[in-house]
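From the shared-data thread, chain only:
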Amino acid sequence: MIQRLFIAEKPSLGKAIAAELGVTQTCQGYIVCGNDAVTWCFGHLLEQYDPDDYDEAWKLWRRSSLPMIPREWRLKPKESTRAQLQVISNLLGEAATVVNTGDPDREGQLLVDEVLEHFRYTGPVQRIWLASLDSRSIQKALATLKDNRDYANLRDSARARSQADWLIGMNATRAMTLRGRESGRDGVLSMGRVQTPTLALVVNRDREIAAFTPIDYLVLQARLQHDAGTFSAIFKPSETQPGLDSEGRLVDGATAQDIMDAVRGKNGIITSVTREKKKKPVPLPHCLSSLQKAASSKLGMTAQQVLDTAQSLYEKKLTTYPRTDCRYLPEEQFSDAARIITALSGVSDLEAVTAKADSALKGPVWDTKKITAHHAIIPTGEEPRSLTAQEKELYLMIAVQYFLQFYPPMLYEAQKILATIVETAWEARGRMIIEPGWTGFAAEEDDEDAKKKEAEQSLPSVGNNDAVLCADVDALKKKTTPPSRFSEGSLIEAMANVHRFVSDAKAKAVLKENEGIGTEATRADTIEKLKRNKYIRADGKALVSTELGQRLIDMSPPELKDPVTTAQWETRMTLIEAGKASLEDFLNDQIAALPGLLAELLDTGKPFPPAYPCPACGRPLRRIPKKEKDEYFWGCAGYKNGCQYTAPDDNGKPGKKIPQVVSPHKCPRCGKGMIRKESKKKKGSFFWSCSGYPACTGLCFDKGGKPDFSTFKTK
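Structure, as tokens:
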């Protein structure tokens, strides 16, 4: 009899638990720990039924099958996981108690619960909640096991997302694929609740860039002299200043010249002096999306590479759980800070930052109330060994960001001087660092910082009504710039902060609260899926939408590509998690909305642009298999309407049609010229056909390169 059977989400988690329990025997697929046993999943061991698993008629992709709505939701074992499922089945038969050891989130709860449901297990189940795999965290979690029934709503919220994703994704994908096939597009046109609005972000950004028209403008910069020193000031035009565009930019060269001529060499007066001491707070530790953005920018890593590497560091017990959307830390862990700082003080590349880290300094990052399912990614204090180059770089990025929490904020004085010269206003800004604080070990990196550095100067000590002289003035030629294309890092950030792209106030608030579209764990995979589907492509570090991706967004109904839909879903799933709404009601609402969604996707009044239009009639060309295996040709969709255009296949695209030469040999039936053709059935064998086909079907055999009219016949 097994006293407690721990079912972990993955082997690494299971082995970490077993190490703390005390390993007495290692077996195939599980570990014995005295009276306890530990086994594991490999993520989801079960998967949703395919449509044809529910109904054989759904195997054929056709309009009449839509919408596809399962009467009863079913799961099936993944082929690759059957052996492990059998191990778990055998262990369940001996277990007095099961401990759900899924990752501490919705998905982790569901994937273990669904295994227990699969085997109809009815015994007692407990839940362990682990955010880190270091020894101290595991021991603490083992001492505080909860009743798994307390997490039923968490499971249902994950199941709601999974089943609704199936309903929308399967039906929308089939509908769009059918539309695509009708237009000659080969392959599956995948759609989904997360990938489609993510694609829309890239498409909209690319179109914004394409439509952007740069505007030339001028910035007037004066060199002002004061008894205390010289400084630069920028011309600040009034609202009534001539020569401005609608955005208040100086665009008229003649006006600019007049202003420069008027002030150069003239005296002015200081009208305002502002000096304000400010703090630049320490940047919070990383969540997954902020780590992906930083690593994309600094290390050139893809979002998936960051996730995989962070997962590896977690499995090596060097860092905490990586799939987190939170950048705060629980107050209960503050006491561990001194231990972690001391443990890692001897690590190369961390010696300098740990040396001056003050473990007694408790900043705003320590806030238990702001913790979601997981806290920020931080080092565990285990010494890093045998790391790959990528693992080392990412580990240092995580560790340094954590140690910065034990540094004071940067103190600086923000300075601003306003001056009037010949009835024109001029502004000078500066910043004087008083105490570098955390910036002594890490650079400031946000956009505002960049703007400050551009204008950063040390301003002299001046007073109101002081005299200044405009020693010189220049016109700096500037040009407005379009928004930057998305990189993988910035797209991850946009997905996490998609509320910035939404105008609806209520939806904006929900999306902000729920950290955007997708999850920390799935966003990288979403980007990879968009690339695999050839909806977007990488151009260096930039992501660019393809023609297919743009067409797909043009054909998508608003509720499928608008993140507002996700906001509505997240609201409902949060209510399910809180026990204030039901899984059944949520799914029924999605089912009720399906017909309208599909009607828009299948609307023949909005034709999908042909992938390859027929040169003869403009209808779509379709790739058609030949009788010979793995051979294709392209034919016009309008063949039933009399268009006989065909083209050879050239690596999945229509190739150039070989021109047919009409010979001087005349058809005995209609008098039109005959054409020599090679037999499709026998290579190197030829026959002759009338050029008047299909009106005339005359043909005959070839004899020495000439038509053998003795064999002439019609079809």
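The chain has 21 helices and 26 strands.
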